[in-house]
Task: structure prediction
Amino acid sequence: MTSNSHYSLAQEQYAAIGVDTDAALKALATIPISVHCWQGDDVAGFEGDSGITGGGIMATGNYPGRARSIDELRSDLEQVYSLVPGKHRLNLHASYLDHGGAKVDRTEIEEKHFQSWADWAKTQGLGLDFNPTYFSHPLANDGFTLAHPDKHVREFWIEHGKRSRKIGAFLGRELDNTCVTNIWIPDGLKDTPADRRGPRERLIESLDETLSEKLDPNHNLDAVECKLFGLGSESYVVGSHEFYMGYAMKNQTVLCLDAGHFHPTESIADKISSVMFYVPRLLLHVSRGVRWDSDHVIVLNDDLQAIARELVVGDYLSRTHVGLDFFDASINRVAAWTIGTRNILRALLIALLEPTAQLQSLEKEGDYTARMALFESVKSLPFGAVWNHYCKTVGVPLDTGLMTPIKDYEQQVLSKRS
Ligand code: RNT
Ligand code: ZN
Result:
């Protein structure tokens, strides 16, 4: 049987439950995924130092081939985008600046340090997103930045945040494509705090000051990201969920929910339809928590499907920026990026192929038995044939054909890096 007939058959089976596969693929093609730059180099950045030093996050593994320069990272990213169907975005951290050889501290970053990223993004047809970098820096090493007890340290990080937002606006303007600038800070304590309130008061002040300049929302949108705990902040994180949910609601900023930043059994899927009543927009860091780690490569599991389903079924896609946040240094990084990015798209496709109207009317009628039967029967419909058809149409490999180009690239490019 040809793959075309596989698709026709799938089309028929979905049509039988009232689902239009062509419409689902058309919708999928319009969803941009913001691919995080930091999977390619283990969050090292290009400031000249080597990798995360503190800040509650950690890349583990020593698979060869990490990108050591901007050119290498771009080359790897081009490889990734060529293996992922659709038009997407790149999410940059301030530490990935193009400093042209000069030592540029975090309070010295300017638009010009990101010009080459904007130029490259243009040639690639990518939108850009941005993040101030509040970790891997001597002034972040004691675990506090925007909430630091020392005013001078706070001022340093406030200045960094202000500059980052302006760079975000610059990128949005250059590309004529709104940039989301997301604030995540590591601030917290390893052991029981004596004062939970003080650091939060300071954080509010620092955030207010950082966000005080009004920027054109067509160019830049501000987001804030919470966390339950991190390495070195096990007992207390200043920017907790309640903290940032309140802050985002009050100030109408974008709220960022990272799938790995909650209790291990707590899913962000159920939070979406609650917070969306109160915040203008949502940023997702789609990730996978495994025990203490919040940043494993996303696989097509129930958690991922639940998140994608909420976005589609709740009709939230137009108010949601879907970003990724994982970093695995123990496997081929191009593969990690590619597989993860394709997985959120696969999850979204499954959601787009759901007979939602039917499921919801069964639920309304109170027929939970039929709802369960339909939910379960949908699981064995041939979503893979629809996905394969999409990959074929846009000219990217099928899932089963991914490792050939990845291995070629590894052999020709990655393995030559020491
Ligand atoms: C850390 C946050 C944050 C970072 C990136 C590098 O716990 O998830 O989003 O992963 O900014
Ligand atoms: Zn995150």
User: Anything to note?
Assistant: The chain has one domain: 32-352. The chain has a mean pLDDT of 97.
